[in-house]
Amino acid sequence: MILTTSKPAIDSRQETGYDMNEPCQKTKGLMTIPVLTIIAVFGLATSAAAWNELGHMMISASAYDQLTPEVRQRVSTLLKLNPKYATWVAGVPAKEKDRIAFLKASIWADDIKRDPAYMQDGTHNGNRPSGPTAGQNIGYADQLQHKYWHFIDLPFSPDDTKSVEPAIPNAKTQIILFGDTLKSATASDDVKSYDLVWLLHLVGDVHHPLHAISRFSQVQPAGDEGGNLVSVCWKPCTKHEKLHKFWDEVLGFSTNPNAAIKKEGAPVATGRSSNGLHQR
Question: Which of 46, 84, 85 minimizes the C-alpha distance to 62?
Fold first, then answer.
């Protein structure tokens, strides 16, 4: 696989000697957040890594299987408050509605990025928080996209370039906040429902290697934006794509929750293999 890096706002690609196979120690602190607050709230655990629709629903399928009947009932009650609930379960047999809604809920936080009812906020194309509303937790009255909640750019540098600490709020701060709210005896069900769908999504997001890191180097002193400024290609390199996108799609492609249920119970067969790839 050919790997190149680019500087922000410059239409060029430069070689890098960075070894993609070298483990990154900086991500370990995040991954040891008790996966995450959701374990304490729901009593579930998952170490799966997932990113696009199929991946997020695979994580949710695994989580749902570990819920007790009592917790499933409470979760179902909360999910029915989501404005897209009717769409999630349209045409679904009654006995499967709770499970399918749970899986669909895990991708809602990405769906709102394409929903005209929700506004992009923050700076840097919505990827940096800005202003007092960035960390608000007000339930479905919140019509902001909060793109910056999806990741935490833990910095590392292979050449000792000065790095920048992650902006706040981020995935870690929100996972803690949402988990605490779900355990609260005073928070409304509207807010708990909103926090639940976000928490389902963010637990999946932070298991994506490039949702938890940014590489700072002499080539990219402002960071590589979680691999979004790194291009990769398959020889003979007729088409380039972002390294971040490569990871997004590594588990395969499907928007069908039944496909996620089937795949979740089987050995992971990735949708994209690194066999035969050459790295520059």
Answer: 46
pLDDT digits (tens, 9 = 90+) for 180-233: 999 999 999 999 999 999 999 999 999 888 999 999 999 999 999 999 999 998
Residues 6+ apart with CB under 8 A from 89: 97, 100, 101, 104
Residue 41 — very low, low, confident or very high, per pLDDT cuts 50/70/90? Answer: very low
Q: Tell me, letter by letter, the H, E, C secondary structure of 114-130.
A: HCCCCECCCECCCCECC
Report domain extents, the chain: 2-264
Nearest residue to 251 via CA among 233, 263, 261, 241: 263
* Residue closest to 60 by CA, chosen among 249, 259, 252: 259
Closest CA to 208 of 79, 58, 104, 64: 58
Residue 264 pLDDT exceeds 70: no
2-264 placed in CATH 1.10.575? yes
**Cβ atoms of 61 and 260 closer than 8 Å:** yes
In the numeric block, which tokens belong to residue 179?
Answer: 């988990």
Q: How confident is the model at residue 279 (pLDDT cuts 50, 70, 90)?
A: very low
Smallest Cα–Cα separation from 167: which of 215, 122, 136, 224? 122
